[in-house]
């Protein structure tokens, strides 16, 4: 049953972190509860339509006739409504669902036998009104860190039962009314709560789809386990998630820790997700540690129309020693980070600072590489971050670079003479490669067939804030 997905999607996960500070925060608002209530009522209404009212039979003594044998059979629900309902939060406790003024209409057959030989029969319509249901849902955790739900208590009360008989002797109607009311009231009340419990239990297979450990690619995965208990107020549920990138199978902590951050108060969307600078920077640490932030650049990566080629002739124009020592050879560049890049979040602005080296090689006829020089490269890029599907994606734009000579194998030269070449190489070869990966996106915490609708992203001081509505498609 889906009606609590959007309320309990991440509640009470097993905490596997030793840190009390979250990398990701999630807030579910009253608007989310209302959406969950609408889905839930439709689900419960469908479930209650499966009520099977058992045949009822017995014997009553009626003066002066004596014993009257009766039976009510073939009772089927023809209409059912749940016009009033509420799904609310109990601060520091859990979730409560209440349904009021519900009604059920049934149709069935009646039959009697009395004075041993006289038989009579007909049909009846039964209207159950003022039906109320109240239930509390508990949330627990399984051994995988995913939530499980169960009903802790339930009360179902049938307010009144009205019967309209068709056919047969009219004097029998009052007789029926005196005991069918009690018999059917008990039969219904015994079935309603078990059906509600079944509906809640049906959530658990869906909750197992929660991406507590979300794989990103061959290098990284994201840990979305809880780092503390959910904070439940009258209007929202706030969840603290670890929100940390790790190398696949190697959960090594970065040389920095998450710092406290909070979500600004907003309630126009169903769901708010805050992503801290710690979470984003942990991605940089992971990819640097995995050696993923290194790239060989060859001439075939340069547009064919460019006058600048990766060969000793082009570079010999700026560094004559190269053309003299390695005439007529193609070249290869290795760009790799020296340390993890640093992502800085300021209001409406996100920048990435990276310290790298560029090693230039001449490619010998036998394919061996002869080193030419090593440059220190400090670059700054601006990032445009956005939400697509259930992922956080981005696009980088180069701001500036600063270069210095680390080592030369061809003698001294002026590094500034290479500024234009390396700016061009970064713009047309390196940045597009990074953007291609960023545009594939990084998974956000999600469950089942969940879709984000009308998502908006704000860059705040030291965090990103995603405000979104939610739809479940199955």
From TrEMBL:
GO molecular function, one term: lipid binding
Signal peptide location: 1-18
Cellular component, GO, one term: extracellular space
Record keyword Signal present: yes
The Lipid-binding serum glycoprotein N-terminal domain, residue ranges: 27-250
GO BP annotation list: defense response to Gram-negative bacterium; innate immune response
Major subcellular site: secreted
Residue ranges constituting the Lipid-binding serum glycoprotein C-terminal domain according to the UniProt record: 265-468
Similarity remark: Belongs to the BPI/LBP/Plunc superfamily. BPI/LBP family.
Stated name of the protein: Bactericidal permeability-increasing protein
Species of provenance: Phoxinus phoxinus
